[in-house]
Amino acid sequence: MEKNVLGIDLGTGSVKVTAVNKLGDIVGQESTSYPNPQPQPGWSEQNPNDWVNGTIAAIRKLVNDDNVDPVSISGASFSGQMHGLVLLDKNNHVIRPAILWNDTRTTKQRKEIEDKLGKRFVEITGNQPLEGFTITKLLWVKENEPENWAKVKTFLLPKDYLRFKMTGNIAVDFSDATGTTLLDIHDNKWSLEICQVLGIPEKILPPLIQSIDYAGNVIPDFADEADMSTITKVYGGAADNSAGAVGAGIMSPNNALVSVGTSGVVLHHEVDLSTDYGGRLQMEDHSIPNTYYSMGVTLAAGDSLTWYKNTFVPDEDFTEMTDEAGNSPIGANGLLFTPYIAGERMPHADSQIRGSFVGIDRTQVRRDFTRAVMEGITFSLKDILTIYDEIGATIDHVTSIGGGAKSAVWTQIQADIFDKPVTTLKNEQGPGIGAAMIAAVGLGWFTGFPACADQFIKFGKTYEPIQANADKYAKLFKIYQQIYPQTKKISHELRNFR
Ligand SMILES: Nc1ncnc2c1ncn2[C@@H]1O[C@H](COP(=O)(O)OP(=O)(O)O)[C@@H](O)[C@H]1O
Ligand SMILES: O=C(CO)[C@@H](O)[C@H](O)COP(=O)(O)O
């Protein structure tokens, strides 16, 4: 009988489940969307049980509509949206909605950590204590919801909660543990120094596992609900950007990953911790054992386009809308957009900045606005690539994944703005393929990730930069870079009106 692995990509907009056979062929792919409530400006939450129910619904469709035999599913693993805080009580029940990676309510807690630990925090974790990271969310609950804090037995990251519901076992994998910024990245242990200084009880720290570690079989309750078999072995899984890098074959430093999902990411493979980014970029443990990756994150990349579409173009699908933008010229007839609609993380770690359209002219039409949004998101990723340039990294090629890579118009814009060749995957779901690869390596189907990559990764088209476009974008990028410093004060003053 054919054997398959499941890659479960728990994104912010939806969960995508991909079944892949031993040859690396996708034999089924299903997804379920779920809401992302924003109860106040800057807040972003999700109900962890929506992730579980969404995954169950997607797997049921895979089994019943795509005819993936449950007994053929030898292994499953995960790619998960990072940093989100799931708090569990003594009965392992969820205490409050998860506080997500793009929730920026925690500026006060960020400052407290900076005041108490200063540079030492970056030395230990490889990261700054930014609003997005789990540690500031823990402190926020401790300070603002003492009744919930008193109930906390442990905490998990999003995909780790899903794994717990599938296997009954509690653990966090290392690639998501660095994203909490509570892990000492040098010795891969929870930092008791940070816990002590910030008053976080050691007893709530969950056990740590590697991405490729066996984490248990699917338990009968979950198998019944999802039409699965308890034969399926479950493996640790990884932070979505780690899994995305694996699924896109980013295994050397000259090839960067760009991901446009809800967030936007530029990611660089790091063989060790020798490059000191000083917290300007994130540094994370990788799912490939004993390696790391650095990355910069735009908080609202695909999220900006989704906001724009829902608000102004609700009756067209993404493909129609982005294709139409292909008929607007480079620079959208003089219109620029900054995607800071949820604040920004990198290069401007500013929870109060907000987005803007600059240069609106009465000759412009809808396609210009759509193009400006797509270009502005891409400029924000170029801003991150510029940090790598300054540090001296040699990146000569980009692999592009995530929902944004579905659009040929946008991928060409990426090639032109980055002024580098950009390759897509045949199936843009890099994180899902990466998650399936983790299960395949965990099962021992392959000797390691490089051998699995040879079989599982199928590249699509390469978009070469068009020099005339790249030259125009280089000039526009200089203008784009002036918008943040010039709108910062205005954005901050508007805070009280949001
Ligand atoms: N056909 C398309 N063309 C361009 N962008 C798209 C298309 N479909 C979806 N997107 C963008 O991709 C984003 C979702 O990407 P995805 O990788 O699924 O995100 P997540 O993992 O955060 O759920 C959306 O926010 C949207 O902006
Ligand atoms: O915060 C980060 C990475 O540090 C985000 O990249 C999240 O991991 C969410 O990812 P998507 O839902 O956009 O894939």
UniProtKB/TrEMBL annotation:
Residue ranges, annotated region (Disordered): 28-49
Q: EC no.?
A: 2.7.1.17
The residues responsible for catalysis, as annotated, are: D240 (proton acceptor)
Q: Enumerate the InterPro entries for this protein.
A: ATPase_NBD (IPR043129), Carb_kinase_FGGY (IPR000577), Carb_kinase_FGGY_CS (IPR018483), FGGY_C (IPR018485), FGGY_Carb_Kinase (IPR050406), FGGY_N (IPR018484), Xylulokinase (IPR006000)
Catalyzed reaction equations: D-xylulose + ATP = D-xylulose 5-phosphate + ADP + H(+)
UniProt GO molecular function: ATP binding; D-xylulokinase activity
GO BP term, example:
D-xylose metabolic process
Domain spans labelled Carbohydrate kinase FGGY C-terminal: 257-442
Keywords assigned by UniProt, alphabetized:
ATP-binding, Carbohydrate metabolism, Kinase, Nucleotide-binding, Transferase, Xylose metabolism
Role of this protein = Catalyzes the phosphorylation of D-xylulose to D-xylulose 5-phosphate.
Report what the protein is called. Answer: Xylulose kinase
Origin species, per record, is: Fructilactobacillus fructivorans
Gene assigned in the entry: xylB
